[in-house]
Specification:
Length: about 180
Amino acid sequence: MSVPQPPQLPQPPQPPQPPRLPQLSRLPQLSDEDVRTDRSTRQAKLKWVIVVDEELPAGRAVNAAACMAAAVGRAMPELLGPDGADGSGTAHPGLPWAGCSVLAADAGTLRELRAKAVEKDELFVVDMPAQAQTSRVYDEYLDSLAGTKAEDLEQLAVSLVGPRNKVSRLIGKLPLLR
């Protein structure tokens, strides 16, 4: 006599795996010698900048910079220095040892900067298309992004992380965001 088997329950659909982004394979490779928390950020071999559209209101500019910084932190956790404690023993999470300058540019310069940057090796590029600030549902943002060609995206900000000389050549003499 065989034991009856319980009916098979339908399996919930698995979410699709996100595509492997090509720029993640071009992350700057840092050696132990490159990560120096005992030196000035100007002596670091690595440079991190965020360039924001100079016409954005302050709240939207800060939002763009913060969102891109989160993406950089996830992709490059070695950018964060060790946690520290103040004189009272209260812990403070580690911050980027290489620093991060926030610069300003017009919309056309942002578009050109992103286009040039994505062609460079050892340069990690994070951008903030306008759709990211107008979508309240992340999947809707992804759908909108998928339906828009790169050259048609309105860039609100671009973040670059890479060798100091490559980043400096790309940004030229862009001013600090004021």
